[in-house]
Amino acid sequence: MKTFLKRYISPDRRRLMRRALARIRWFGLRCYCPVCESNVTRFLPGGVVPRPNVLCPVCGSAERHRLDWYFMKNHTDLLNGKQKSLLHVAPEYEISNRLKRVGFLDYWTSSLDGKDTRAKIDITNMSFPDDQFDAIYCSHVLEHVTEDRSAIREFWRILRPGRWALLQVPITPDLDVTAEDKAVVDPNERARLYGQWDHVRAYGSDYPDRLREAGFNVTVSRAGDILTSKQITLWGIETSEEPIFYCQKL
């Protein structure tokens, strides 16, 4: 059966089939995923350091994806029906799957190796012209980039004046100043200091200052600012420490 599926059914079709079966298997009214619009009995554990109530069993979205998607859909003009261009860096399948079906979006996906994306780019030195995009979505990428300030300046450069970007990073609770040391290259030491072996820093509450240095006007919103307490519980977002960083090029 597995050989038949691989030979005659496309990967996208197989994903749709698995998703349909998961909707049946995990159906319930205790939790809701706004990304795939599924009612499920619970969210599954997830994360490098496993934590409960994280992953949607249907689409695989984590709590930050559910919050980001809701914000883009309801607190930006991304889906207002008007033609616009969007750059999605290191696209998450569950969100990309929604965005690529939006007919009025000129939707660009990108990654460092170019695998399964529209563009192969190094975000610290992009080949896109100035003022190229109406919106940029980059989530949990900058903590892997040694020269993150260069990447942030590049995002500002390729964004059209008056437009916006969501530049999301994990924030370490109670850390006021971002911790980083380029001399730390050992994966185990990076994991100890920054929470994951391939992270090169741990962002603190001063992260918006880096965004402002590049020229962005930054608005920080937390889940409690945009969701009801019922939504926060139902969507599994009550344990999320990560705000939304809405960055405008004025």
* Rg (C-alpha, Å): 19 Å
Quaternary state of this entry equals: single chain
Query: What proportion of the residues is helical, as a percent range?
Result: 25-40%
On the 0 to 100 scale, the average pLDDT is: 94
How do the strands of the widest beta sheet line up side by side?
7-6-5-8-9-13-12
- Overall geometry comes to globular
Give me the secondary-structure category. Answer: alpha/beta
Element string (H = helix, E = strand):
HHEEEEHEHEEEHEEHEHEHHE
Distance between the termini: 55 Å
Q: Main β-sheet: number of strands, strand sense, barrel status?
A: 7 strands, mixed
Share in β-strands: 25-35%
Stretches where pLDDT is under 50 for at least 5 consecutive residues are: none
How many runs of DSSP E, i.e. beta strands?
A: 13
How many helical elements? 9
Describe this structure in words.
The structure is a single chain. The chain has 250 residues and is α/β, with parallel strands linked by helices. The protein is built from 9 helices and 13 strands. It has helices spanning 2-8, 11-25, 63-75, 93-99, 148-158, 187-194, 207-213, 223-226, 229-234; strands at 27-33, 38-40, 44-46, 51-55, 84-89, 105-111, 119-120, 133-139, 159-168, 179-180, 201-202, 217-221, 244-248. A 7-stranded mixed sheet has the order 7-6-5-8-9-13-12. The longest helix is centred in the N-terminal third of the chain and has 15 residues, at 11-25. The mean pLDDT is 94.
